[in-house]
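Report of the visiting student (M.T.), summer placement. My assignment was to run the structure pipeline on a short list of targets and document each run. The first record concerns Precorrin-8X methylmutase.
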Amino acid sequence: MNDMRQMTSLGREIEDKSFSIIDEEAGSHPFSKEEWEVVRRIIHATADFEYKDITKIHYQAINSGIQALKKGCPIVCDVQMILAGLNQDRLKAYGCKTFCFISDEDVIAKAKEKNSTRAIEAIQKAKISNLLNGAVIVVGNAPTALLEIERLIRLEGIKPALVIGVPVGFVSANESKEAIIKLECSNVFSVPYIITKGRKGGSTIAVAILHALLLLSSKRGKK
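After the run finished, the structure tokens were exported:
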């Protein structure tokens, strides 16, 4: 059963009222109708209107993300918390499988051996497993995961369908997001992205973005 059917009439009324308040208080914005569906779901999840100003959406992000989901793409996440928040029924309806390797014993061992981070080695495992090309990659916690994705795009030619890059934190969070944005101005693959500039972000934001894309995909109609 999907999240729409699980919601009661009162729950629907509360959500609709919340979105009406967001639309009214947010005022004008530069986003398309579908992009705004993503941004206002972030605001709904956080009650923080600053996300209207710090959310950056690549011009191909919505279409690329929806098309990938409809094809049953892999969903590669940096932390288990994202998996816990995702609507697995809706993902399964499209044939999408979720992956998170950060707690795998071999990943932990390699991180210790190389004095790396588990997040980096988890992304490496996803690459070795041929999961990154055409994938939706979701980073909500670990800037080093996003930096590794940027490196793999720039130096090894991987081509994800979409990078949701919203790691939260004080060390390398903003830098990792800026690195993804700068790919757009380089001669390498300009990966479609949805990011939140600066230090703000987190797994809750990542889940909100992916759920917004799933709802948009449903509105456009299945495969």
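The chain has one domain: 3-220. Residues 3-220 form a domain with the Rossmann fold fold (CATH 3.40.50.10230). I thank the supervising group for their guidance throughout the placement.
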